Amino acid sequence: MSEFKPSDLQDLTGRVYLVTGGNAGIGLETVRFLALKNATVYIGSRSAAKGNAAIASVKATVPNANINLLILDHMNLSSVVSAAKELTTKEKELHGLINNAGIMAVPFEKSQDGYESQWQTNYLAHALLTHHLLPRLLSTARVSQPGDVRIANVTSMGHNFAPKKGIDFADIDQEKGSIWTRYGQSKLGNILNAKELNRLYGPNGIKKQGGEIWSMALHPGNMYTDLNKNARFAGPLSGVVVKMLNAFGAYIPIDKGAYTSVYCVAGENVKREMSGEYFVPIAKVGKASKFARNGELAEKLWSWTEKEFERKKLL
Fold first, then answer.
1. pTM higher than 0.90 for the full model?
2. Under a CB-based contact definition with an 8 Å cutoff, are residues 41 and 27 in contact?
3. 311 burial class (0-12, 13-18, 19+ CB within 10 angstroms)?
4. Sequence-separated (6 or more) residues with CB below 8 Å from residue 284
């Protein structure tokens, strides 16, 4: 089978998608590819200025693009809830959620909600957003064909850097860990979330009678994006190393970095048995870590997360 290209997508007129972190990098390219196929796309961005600039950049090449801004600050969980409510008031249907926004290898910091920044930005905020959008996704699924409604969690091969326990519930903020165990745990969380969503609402889901949603996690590939440029790696030469790797072609182009996201959320050749799987570039099913394949850990994390949201009165 030939390698997937976004031009292979069917016409997406009438379909509605939300891309978090859609104002830059592979998120922006994902928005562009969906808009080219006539989808209605919402850009999740914490900055109105950056979000509107992103919309303008897409419309410069896709003049008829139907793109809308949704203010969404992952470091403020109440903002996540507000964004979900705003979207559901504006759209009666939602066909795809691309949980794309993320940060990598940043210094230890806690959010105003009390969680380590990578854990909250990469995992918790997306889990909360998904929770509040599930009713709209499920109602859309009930009036759609199986596979029309999907969730794509952008993760990373960096999930292999997770703590020795996979998810360290005793030190969830990884205060005793490192920038990389924090990043790895957050990205492992994205995979486990997709796995549990599939167990609940997938083609063989125990709750699929409420609506069938296909959920996948994906590693987009290694790219020279703002994520890499802004990462605080282990030493002072890290920025130089990243630039050298870019110069020597170690990274794939940013637009290609969006191919797997687009495939997972809207590709016609995605099969029902692919729901719950981990994808690697380009648009291929890969093999995640042993923790990422652990169904019991996925259920435990889901339960822990719901209890945290209840404790914070965010549900």
1. yes
2. no
3. exposed
4. none
Confidence of residue 183 (pLDDT cuts 50, 70, 90): very high
Confidence band for 223, pLDDT divided at 50, 70 and 90? low
Distance, in Å, from the CA atom of 60 to the CA atom of 36, rounded to the nearest integer, reads 12
Residue among 266, 46, 260, 306 at smallest CA distance from 156:
260
Residue 224 pLDDT > 80, yes or no? Answer: no
Mean pLDDT across the stretch 180-190?
98
Which of 86, 60, 56 has its CA nearest to residue 71? Answer: 86
pLDDT, greater one: 160 or 241: 160
Rounded to whole angstroms, how far apart are CA atoms 111 and 120?
8
Q: Check pLDDT > 60 for residue 95.
A: yes
Catalytic residue set: 183, 187
As to burial, measured by CB atoms within 10 angstroms (0-12 exposed, 13-18 middle, 19+ buried), residue 68 is: middle
d(C-alpha 6, C-alpha 192), whole Å = 27
31 vs 22: CA distance, rounded Å: 6
String of DSSP letters for 177-234: S-HHHHHHHHHHHHHHHHHHHHHHHSTT-TTGGG---EEEEE------SHHHHH---S
d(CA 192, CA 217): 9
Domains annotated for the chain, with CATH where assigned, are: 11-311 (3.40.50.720)
Task: Give residue for tokens 């990462």.
Answer: 231
